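Notes to self after the call with IL:
- keep both proteins in one doc
- input above output, always
- annotate only the second one for now

Protein 1:
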Amino acid sequence: MYSFEGVMKTIVVIGNGSMAVDCIKIMRGYGQVHVALVIADPKDISLMFLKQYCEAEALDLEFSNDVNSAEIVGKIKAIGPQIIFNINSFQIIREELIAVPDEGIINFHNGPLPRYRGINVCSWAIINGERRYGCTWHLIEKGIDSGDIVAQKIFEISETETAFSLIVKCIREGIALFAEFFPVFLAGHIAGISQNHSLASHYTRKDIPNDGFVDYGWNFARFDRFVRGLNFSPLQNRFAHPKSVVNSMDFYVRKISRCKGYIPETLEPGRVFRFGENGIDVKIKDYAISITEVLEDNMKPIRIGSFIDKYNLEVGSQMKPCGLV
């Protein structure tokens, strides 16, 4: 256990999943830290990690999907924490709660602020073709993801990155970053850096890339980024699925690869020209793709052979849209 000279820090944690657990473990490794309350979303899919840890360590755990409720705010006020950490939580914290801790609320955001504020930003970064990305710990103010930056890490996005793998990378880097800045915070040497708001980009729940549709008029790089950017497997996809249409029936593209073998140059984009060993070969703007995994219109996985039969596919079938944009 580490120790610094100074007063005891009483901390409240709002968080979810294994990231919250790992950060709490780091906090509790310091002698003058008291984690007085942990608040978790009861609907979070990774709840068991935090629940099991808090039970094993006899930490006060509260379940709430509204941290701004009078009950939760009242309980936090009664504790009187110096600081609140918001870790891997998607709840928007309102002004009454922001004003409670003397030293503010520090939030983890899986994006390189001031760029990529908001939600689903890992997906957007891949779809937009970013080569470098990052994660940020920042102070919360009434704006969304607009507070002073406490710590930030920038790293590379791989050519095979998916939404899921980038989220995991952000969490891993975020935990390592927390371990670096937390002792500096305890020593009283943390100074937030103002964001350059002129560089900000922001995404909301209403923002859906290309209305969710793939486009066979895209080149391979853009098509591939779109599919990978909306691939959350093995997590549930609560954002958007890459949608397509063939024979007036909707389906969703789950995985593609670069087509191998002969590719007819004269075919228009979206035209099926071969049923290969691993999938359905379809012409796109500059090349061809093999669609190797799909979901049918009810979002359930379907084998490629069954998909071909159910959707009445044949060589020459036209997949849409193909707007050449």
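Protein 2 (the one to annotate):
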Amino acid sequence: MTDDTETEQSRDSVRGRLTRFAAGLRSRGYYRTLRRLHAALKPETYLEIGIRKGDSLALATTAAVAIGIDPAPILARPAAPNAEVFAMTSDDFFANCDVREELGGRDLDLAFIDGMHLFEYVIRDFANVERVSTPDTVVVLHDCLPIDALSAARDRTTRLWTGDVWKAALVLRRYRPDLRLTVIDAPPSGLVIVHGLDPESRVLDENAEAILGEYTALGFDHWEQHRGEVLELVADLETALAGL
């Protein structure tokens, strides 16, 4: 390795750390977007995958029933009376629980997917949520606008880690063009609002192996080449809400 190469990598490393640091300072910005979504949609039922400390689950104040799913929740405070936390993986939840029964026989109004930060988990979670949804259900995906290559890698080496969730939006665009996707540039790593769901669709399940084979090995350079496919879907939140 030449001195010039080492210097350039050092600069990249410094730029990357500064970029991630700045993103970390804005890491709760997306809560404002989620709060506005709840205020506008007033969901009667809510489901969240990946609740961690329960901060976003607590935004579901209008819901009669709020379901939180996380294999290792670390709630900062007791869950609200309308919330039930399932300490299990999302795969186990959908395999073993009757979602409609857990929702008190109601339809699912709003779901937020922020679980394992690998695209195949997001796609599987989305497919599971869609099966228990209606065409009026709104699903929100987190972390689809990556910050930099290191934090967007499949292996976690940074404190702020979005993983390769950015691939999920590309997968949905290609395999499910029937869905309506709107990207919100909510800091630090974006939200994707998905509506127009089809609970009868099995396209993602039937193509799961092909999707894994096609997208798993793709690196950050693929995002840099194809980001326009996602960024062209960016809209401000109020415009997005008007279309729901």
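Annotation: Residues 28-242 form a domain with the Rossmann fold fold (CATH 3.40.50.150). The mean pLDDT is 89.
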